[in-house]
Amino acid sequence: MAFLTSVFLLCCFSLLHVIVEGQAYQNISLGSSLSSLYNTNAWVSPSGEFSFGFSMVNGSLYVGIRYEKIPEKPLVWTANRDKPAPPGSTVVLNNNGVLVINDAKGVPFSTIGASSDGSVITSAAMLDTGNLVLQTSPEFAVKWQSFDSPTDTILPTQKLAVEKNLYASFSPTNLSTGRYYIVMQNDGNFVSYTDMREPTYASSITWGQKGNLVFDESGKISVFQWELNKTVEIIPGSVIPKPSTDFYFRAKIDYDGIFRLYSYPKRPSNSWPDKWNIVWATLDYACEVPAICGLNAYCVAQDEGFDCLCPKGFSYVDAANKLLGCKQDIPITDCKSYNPEHYSLETIDNMNFFGPHYAIKPSNEFECREWLLADCYSIVGTYWDSKCYKKRMPLRSGNMTSRCKVIVKVPRDNGSLLQPSLFEVGGPSITSNGMRKWSQSGVVRVVLFVISVSLFLLLIIETVVLICLKRWSLQRQEKPVCSVQPEMKLMRFSYKELEKATRGFKEKLGSGSFGSVYRGMMASAYGQKPIAVKRFDKLVEDGDKEFETEVSVIGRTHHKNLVQLIGFCDEGSHRLLVYEYMEQGSLSSVLLGSIRPEWNLRVQIAVGIARGLMYLHEECITPIIHCDIKPENVLVDCYLVPKISDFGLAKLLRHDQTKTKTDIRGTRGYVAPEWFRKMAITVKVDVYSYGLMLLEIICCRKNVELNRKDEPSVVLADWAYDCFVAHQLEMLVEHDEDAKNDMRKVKKMVMVALWCIQEDPSLRPTMKKVTQMLEGAVGVAIPPNPSSLISSTG
User: Fold this and answer.
1) Fewer Cβ in 10 A, N or C end of the chain?
2) Does CATH number 3.40.50.920 belong to domain 491-580?
3) In what residue span(s) does the Bulb-type lectin domain sit (predicted)?
């Protein structure tokens, strides 16, 4: 009897039919394979409704799960959506229980699935639910399933767990990951986002309780809130076709970012034709999705779907894919020669761009148009509710809106922008008798040309004279003339260019309050050139202000002790700055490294930083307060030349200002006392921070070191003053023989630092005087105790 039972069980196992969760299916054994060369070669579910195998979509080869009985056999899950397989590829369930995609030569191209707990996979199966599973034997426990790794679609009986995303495809014919995704958040909200983590607000479904998204066999989609043991319907059963068993259902986030529930009749009829019907959607129109058409484009709803259009003066980035947005055909690059008469204004009625603006003015429409036309930097504006808005480029989220107008500046004549009309000369025409005849306009143009050339020559002569006079004047002046470069040209990079240059932001150099800095490589005339790319991660108001400030400040300055800004990226939500790369990193890493920098080098670094700050404070037409001077914000190049960086917290002053009021900025340990007393802030806050940093340069240590055993030396500033009063300055450079042999200079630098860190700002020297004291041009008096009470003159 036992023998017969064993034979019976062996026969059952050999048939490889299994009952799991009430479903019958046939196992796919180890070693089984599929080939892309045979379209009929697929692993089909027992009912024949789903299959796993190769599918060709718009010339690209994908491996996935599809509907088998629907004519077009649409995919519901894709293993390699971002990496189509090469022609002639195969899929093999190898002996390790992993599905491997091999190219035509048998070289592994990609893998699918694996046991999460290291269990041995013995077989696979394609279920009637559309779920592909990998399992063990003999208990046939599922160790991996496609339902746990959805792409853009979920099917009945499938659950979407917390923090699981559905990613839309890029377009109807491009299955790669697109710009939108929808996620079941851990706060209980089912929310659709763009790839920049911006909610597509109207498609958000908020329930406020943690739970899983559940798609049942009847077509209903609900959220099961496990903490309340309660089910809340997202898509009620009342909208589902009856009887629901006669339809296929799928819920999908489409390429336009809208989450839709579809039905397809299993037995088409006049009432239910053989096509996918929309049962329910988070939005009615794709144009309601923010940024659906990309930058500088606007969305127009149509009977079936939508279209993306470019304003006049713009053209598609890629005409074959309008979703990539538009680019300006002839950007205005030189505002010096800007002439409003060379431009006209085009109007788009009932349209708005919902992105940010940089200026607003109450006006009527005529005044609005004049205001926009007069501004060289204004390319597009909007007029709505008796207000005029100058839009910030690039334009974002263009959409049809009643009672609003978009006003676009376009060139009247493209040639006039490339060559000023002043230099256009008319030529002669030929009369009937063969004589040359000059037109009246030609004569006028010749006259204008002669006049312009004469003026140009006079301008050259005047410039030469002025240069000579200026050089002679400079020799007689003690104060240098400002070397600010207001028209310094910065390179504008695209986000993709910088992503490629940094290899996907792989090598992080450091991070700050608003973002991180990455190393990259950029092509130059001398080959590949290293760059530093600062990416602003926190896209909040203050971060945006810091970005704009840093670009405007660094882009208008030029000094050997200031870091050079090469360019920037301002694309969508991406804010990045591109700097020259500093090989030695920050001053902090140099001072606190394993090898102490030589004393003379530290002196040169201190003087270089002082010169850089003197330039910012006194040699610029617009004085600049850095507000965050510290060793981490001083970079060192390959020649160990210090360069001040990170102007993100800089406070600009007008030429007639000497102080300003602002919120506390800077880094703890380097902030001047007046920040906390709500006093007016002057350039002296940078002097204070420099003084603390100068002590760090002298001593090669941090200004506060809580782990020191000798308590008096914990705070460097207090210890330095005590050592100065006790005539024990050698303690500050205890292990530095070069500095000990130059105690006269050590004493002078300590005295300068003590003057800089006086609590009373009026007692602190200017950075010009600090530079002169360090260079020996002026003497250094005995400093008072820095922590003395504020004098009456403060």
Assistant:
1) N
2) no
3) 28-147
